[in-house]
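[Meeting: bench + compute handoff]

Bench side (C.D.) handed over the final construct sequence. Compute side (W.E.) agreed to return the predicted structure before the next meeting so the bench team could plan truncations. Sequence as handed over:
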Amino acid sequence: MRYTVKQVAKLAGVSVRALHYYDEIGLLTPEAVGENGYRYYGDDALLRLQQILFFKEMELSLEEIRAILRRPGFDVIHALELHRQALIERSQRLTRLLQTIDDTIEDLKGEQKMPKKKLFAGFSDEKQKEYEVQVRQKYGEHAFDGVRDWNTFSAVEKEQVKREGEAIYQGLVECLEAGLPPESDQAQALTRQRHKHIEYFYKCSFERFLALAKMYGEDPDFTATFQAMHPNMVAYVLQATTYYCKVNGGIE
């Protein structure tokens, strides 16, 4: 069966314009083009479009997706299995975040007392590494040279890194709740610790540190994580980081 570009757009929930663009860059070409100039797609094209959308969900660029789909021996079934596993892991993490939000709301309403450590349930230092991909896409391939693989950490090291991260963010929450400005000595000391903490994973210049903080407010997963700690946490961390990078790194 063949489908027109409008039919494909309706089936997949994408725009006709996007399909035209995918054709222009060689990412998704129609099976045939009629004398009237209409594009016609077959079942194979629909399956390929599904892969494109799955990879976009994983926040890969169109150029990266095209390179993957063009690899010799690309296996659709194996790719689907990987997509499935990635979505399961994301779903589990989001479930933990939602529970953290619910627990925080109940705590703030006085309905239950939640241990401060639970403010950070669903957040892990491994999540920090996911943002390397986004930073590379936005700021260049060498934005995170010298990355250390999380799997190279021992169990003891992982626990130490996690505890340090929790202490830093809990300290920032306490600064916020105490009404201390992001430029305060306490908030800046914790921001300096946060900068040092990131270097467990990669060398982090002031430019990279600020870029990462800006990204916290752009990514819904990370925004939800910080808002679970405190509704104003994203803005507070960004303001503290901006001031820290300006004073210590001369970064505007």
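W.E. noted at the follow-up: The longest helix spans residues 76-108. C.D. will use this when planning the next construct.
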